[in-house]
């Protein structure tokens, strides 16, 4: 029962619709009505610019971290039990981000929250993944491509670099990469055709009043 309550709390944390609230509160628009229609960091970068996109990405990552940290509120008999609960809590937050109860169950793809989850469970692996993300973003300015390659790097690091022994976590890492690729099929097609939008890393966007943000 306690674990179930924690999972519900993790889902509610994930449901904080950062991109929706920032777009409505600061810019006077609903991010879901612009760009790709997703309420996540990628679309925020594309529509509202790098400052808003970075803020949304960091807060969405924090949601994953906080959800995993809930696992320490109860005692555990083994490390395996702790990791299993942490994965469950993190996934609940990701589901909350994708289907947020606070925003009509219309959210983003959960990549930043997923990264935050991994950061809380295995910080070094997550930092490598974030490094891959930032490097690809800097070189290409494609947030979608950065997310895809960082997610693929995750199981590569787990299996071949850090040689994680926990089978459940190895399976989870592979599933993450597959899920990200599947949820980015449209982005992949746009990347292949050359029609995918790039993010403006070095220039500001204007809000509806014409002010820099």
Automatic annotation (TrEMBL):
Q: Name one GO molecular function term.
A: glycerol-3-phosphate O-acyltransferase activity
Q: What is its main location?
A: membrane
For this UniProt record, the keywords arranged alphabetically read as follows: Acyltransferase, Cell membrane, Lipid biosynthesis, Lipid metabolism, Membrane, Phospholipid biosynthesis, Phospholipid metabolism, Transferase, Transmembrane, Transmembrane helix
Is the keyword Nucleus assigned to this protein?
no
Q: What class of enzyme is it?
A: transferase
UniProt function note: Catalyzes the transfer of an acyl group from acyl-phosphate (acyl-PO(4)) to glycerol-3-phosphate (G3P) to form lysophosphatidic acid (LPA). This enzyme utilizes acyl-phosphate as fatty acyl donor, but not acyl-CoA or acyl-ACP.
Per UniProt, subunit arrangement is: Probably interacts with PlsX.
UniProt lists the family membership as follows:
Belongs to the PlsY family.
The protein depicted here goes by the name: Glycerol-3-phosphate acyltransferase
What's the source species for this entry? Chitinophaga pollutisoli
